[in-house]
Amino acid sequence: MSQPSTHVIAIGNAIVDVMAPCADSLIEQLGLVRGGMTLVDTARAQELYDAMGPAREISGGSAANTLAGLAALGSKCAFIGQVADDQLGEVFAHDIRAGGISFATRPRSAEPPTARCLIFVTPDGQRTMNTYLGASQYLPAAALDEAAIADAGILYLEGYLWDPEEPRAAMRRAISAARNAGRKVAFTLSDAFVISRHGDDFRALIAAGEIDILFANHLELAALTGHKDFHAGIDQLKAKVPLLVVTRGELGAVAATGGELFDVPAEPVAKVVDTTGAGDLFAAGFLHAHVEGRSVTDCLTLGAVCAAEIISHYGARPEADLRELAARRLG
User: Fold this and answer.
1) Could you give the number of structural domains in the chain?
2) Could you tell me the pTM of the whole model?
3) Residue ranges making up the domain that contains 94
4) Contact call for residues 37 and 184 (beta carbons, < 8 A)
5) Is residue 267 classed as helix, strand or coil in its secondary structure?
6) pLDDT (tens digit, 9 = 90+) per residue, 126-182?
7) CB contact at 8 A, 156 and 188
8) If residue 59 lies in a helix (H) or strand (E), which one and from where to where?
9) For the domain that residue 74 is a member of, what is the CATH number?
10) 121 part of a folded domain
11) Alpha-carbon gap, residue 56 to 38, rounded angstroms
12) Residues in CB range of 269: below 8 A, 6 or more apart
């Protein structure tokens, strides 16, 4: 098997995040699910946007955020995701390419518009996300560059994008392309609501040995396994996934591989400003260290370092020099 020319290629939602601080009372007033992610239609998206205070627009999307972190750390990355031929689509494409990430998916000329996520951030840093998927849910299998997938060391898939039918078919095809080329497949479960809808699919992929690296948080682990007890959930999955990685917020993160369990604490943060993208950047740090061939403990540590950086400011794209942070922490 040849050496990959790209470290990580990801498939995910191409979304522009629209973020604004808000009072706790506004969350209740709008009937939002505090701290969660809710899919919204066009009318609801407009209603929520109208209720927002002054906002910042930052390119986002879970897998794209992960790639932004990976590229900032020095990994060579590529992204596959669907935007529309509109202003937000241009913003997304510019931002991801400016970050050094290859992005060749052609924009759609038809409706709906480019996806956006309306994020309300309360004073405690908690983010409440409301996602209008727009064009991103119309990624066709024909948009895949299978040669690029076969030439990447890791295919990274975003659970959020499993929900719409068309990109789900594209992701299944991408898994086949990666596995036929002998490459690794990494999958992030994204959110418990995705598991409530597609948990059987995910469990089938795991049982079939299609997933090499699985990322989850403690809530997603419970939803996937049916175990409220954290360690019972780990025990159920650890023999089925070669590398299982589970984050626990302020309690740190755990990885299970080769019959061993590894545990690291969360990195200290002076003030939690916004938790948007914490899991995405944790995955970035972990995967970068994994690509470099570092120990599992180092992978977890770099994941925690990147997560700590992202929650210290607004937005899900890194602002500090991640390479410098990595060098300072890992040497």
Assistant:
1) 1
2) 0.90
3) 6-330
4) no
5) coil
6) 889 898 999 999 999 999 999 999 999 999 999 999 988 999 999 999 999 999 999
7) yes
8) strand 56-60
9) 3.40.1190.20
10) yes
11) 20
12) 308, 311, 312
